[in-house]
Amino acid sequence: xxxxxxxxWLFGLLLLATxxxxxxxxxxxxxxxxxxxxVAVTPFAWEGDGSASEDVAQIVGTNLARSGLFQVxxxxxxxxxxTGPDDFLAEQWAAVGAEYLVIGRLLPEAERVxxxxxxxxxxxxxxxxxxxxxxxxEMLRRGAHRVSDIVYEQITGxxxxxxxxxxxxxxxxxxxxxxxxxEVADSDGANPRTLFRSSQxxxxxxxxxxxxxxxxxxxxxxxxxxxxxxxxxxxRDRLASFSGINSAPAxxxxxxRMAMSxxxxxxPNIYILDLDTGALTQVxxxxxxxxxPAxxxxxEILxxxxxxxxxxxxxxMRLPGGTAQRLTFEGSSAGAATVSPDGKSLVYVQGGEGxxxxxxxxxxxxxxxxxxxxxxxxxxSFAPNGSMIIYSTTDRGRGILxxxxxxxxxxxxxxxxxxxxxxPAxxxx
Amino acid sequence: xxxxxxxxxxxLMTVLLAACAQPKRDLTExxxxxxxxxxxxxxxTERARREAEARGIGVDxxxxxxxxxxxxxxxxxxxxxxxxxxxxxxxxxxxxxEAHSRYLSQNPGARLRLEGHTxxxxxxxxxxxxxxxxxxxxxxxxxxxxxxxxxxEVISYGEEMPVAFTQTEESWARNRRVELVYEVxx
Lengths: 429, 186
Known about the structure:
The complex is a heterodimer of chains A (about 425) and B (about 190). Chain A is mainly beta. Chain A folds into 2 domains: about 35-155, 3-Layer(aba) Sandwich (Rossmann fold), CATH 3.40.50.10070; about 165-425, TolB, C-terminal domain (Neuraminidase). Chain A has 3 helices and 32 strands. In chain A, the strands form 7 sheets. A 6-stranded antiparallel β-sheet of chain A has the order 1-2-31-30-29-28, with no helix packed on it. In chain A, strands 3, 4, 5, 6, 7 and 8 form a 6-stranded mixed β-sheet that branches. Chain A has a 4-stranded antiparallel β-sheet with strand order 11-10-9-32, with no helix packed on it. In chain A, helix 1 (about 55-65) crosses helix 3 (about 140-155). The longest helix of chain A is centred in the middle third of the chain and has 17 residues, at about 140-155. Mean pLDDT of chain A is about 90; it is low at about 1-20. Chain B is of the alpha+beta class. Chain B has 2 domains: about 1-55; about 65-185, CATH 3.30.1330.60. Chain B is about 50% helix and about 15% strand. Chain B is built from 5 helices and 4 strands. Chain B has helices at about 1-20, 25-55, 95-105, 125-145, 170-175, and strands at about 80, 110-115, 150-160, 175-185. A 4-stranded mixed β-sheet of chain B has the order 1-4-2-3. In chain B, helix 1 runs antiparallel to helix 2. The radius of gyration of chain B is 25 Å and the shape is extended. Mean pLDDT of chain B is about 80; it is low at about 15-25. The interface of A and B includes residues 247, 261, 289 and 378 of A.
C-alpha cells in the first residue's frame, strides 16, 4: 500500500460568519490513495438576476477531494466549459487529464433554485447522467452536498455521505472554566451549530435512525444521566436517571428502543428501554463491566464491551437473551464497537503496546485489520454509506477528529479552531 | 469582630504616636499613611478570615481545629490513587480511609461523595464504569470500618474530569483517583 500526502484543504474562513459561537472545524486530508481519480468540475453558472450565494462547484470539488478517492483539477487547468450536454467534447477533457467531468448551472425560480448538472465519463466519451435538484435559495450549500453524493455514486457505484451531518462534543477552557458543548455540523465541518452547553461533561452523542434526535450523557446534575434532544426544536427529555451510572445509549435500528449501560443493580449491565412503553429489560447479567452496546442493522444482535474475562473485550449476544460470545482476541483490550451499515464488520478500539487504535473485524472471516496508527484513537462512528469511519484522536495533546476510509487507506483530520472536539457521531442519510 | 476592634486600637495608637512624633505640618500625612496601612492590614485579615471560612476552616472561638481541617490529621487526605485498569485500593491508603470511616461513624449527619476517575487510556464508557468500580472499592472499605451506607454516595466521572493534562505516566497516575468530597461535614 502506498500513501502520499495530499494538498491541505482549509475551510472555515468563509464559514465563520455562520456560527460565531460554535466550533468551526478545519479539514485536512493527511493521506490519500495513489491513483486518485482525476475529475474536473466546472463553475456552475447562475442563470438569473444577481449572483449565487454559494460556489456550488467549489463545494462539490472540495467534497470529492476530501473523500481521498478523487483528484480535482484546479480551475486554471479546465478546458472551456460546455454550455450543455450536447456540447461535450471528450478529447478536450482528456487533453487536460480529466477522467470524469461535472458541469452544471443554477436556475433561480420564484421560491427555489434548480441545480441542474451532468456527469460525463471522458474516457468512454459518454454522458453518465443528468440531474435536477430543487432547493430553497438559502439551502444552496445543502444542495451542493446532494450533488456531491450523486456524483460520488455515479463514479464509484457507492452512495455518498456528504449530505449527512456529524454531531460531536466540543470542550473549551481549563479547570473551573471548562465548558462542554454538543455541536452539529455538515459533514465537511461547515455550518456548526451548538445544540447544548454545559459546565459539566457531555458524552456519547448518538443519532436516532430518523436523524431527528440526538441522545447523549450529561453530567448537568453532577452525575451521569441520559438525555434525548430534538435537533430541530431543541426540546429535551431525560431518558435514564437511575442510581449509579446511566451511559452508552444506542438507538435500535427501528428507533423504538434504546440500549444502555446502567449500574442500578450495582454493576454495569446492558438494558433495553422501550421508548413507547417505558419498560426496561435487562439484557446482560454479569458482575463485570458490560457497556458500549451497538446494534446489528437488523436489530437482532447486540455487540458490547465486557471485562468478564479479565480485560475489556467485545462480545455479541443474540436478542432476546442469548448467550454472550466473545469476538475479539487480538491486542490487550477492545471496546466501543461501531457496526458497518451492511452489518458485515465492526470497527472498534483496540488497545495494545502502541496505545489505542482503530481496528476492523470482518464478522464473517473474523479477520482483523488495523486502520489507524495513532495512540489515542477512540469513539469510532461509521458513515451511513459505510465508506469511512470518523473518530476521536489527539494532535500534540489536543483532542481532534479523524476519519479513515473503510480500508484504512485514506486519512483526514478535522480540528476545531479553538478548544477540543471529540466523540463524533455520523448522522443517518 | 475582635480583629476589627484590635485593628481599630492599633490604628488609634499609630495615629497618636504619629501625632506625638511628627511636627505639626506632617500630622495629616502621617495620619493618612497609618490609616491606609491599618486599613490594608485589616482588609488582609478579613480576607484571610473569609477565605478560611470558604475553605471550611471557620473562626474557631475555643481554638479547637475541626479535625477535617487539621493538616496533621489523616482526615486532611482526600485522594486515593489506583494502578492502571485496577480498582484495588492500595494498602497505603487504608489508614486514611479508616480515619474517614471513624469520623463518619462519630458524625452520623456527615455525608461524603466518592468521586471515581480514570486516566484517558481505555474507551470512554468503559472508563465511566471503571471510575464507578474504584469509588465502590473505597465505599466497601469505609462501610467495613464503620461508615454507614447512607452516608456515602458513589459517583463516576470516568475520564471526563482529569486534573493533569499531559500524556505521561505521571499525569495518568494523578488522574486515576477517587476524590473524597464532604457534602455535609457533621
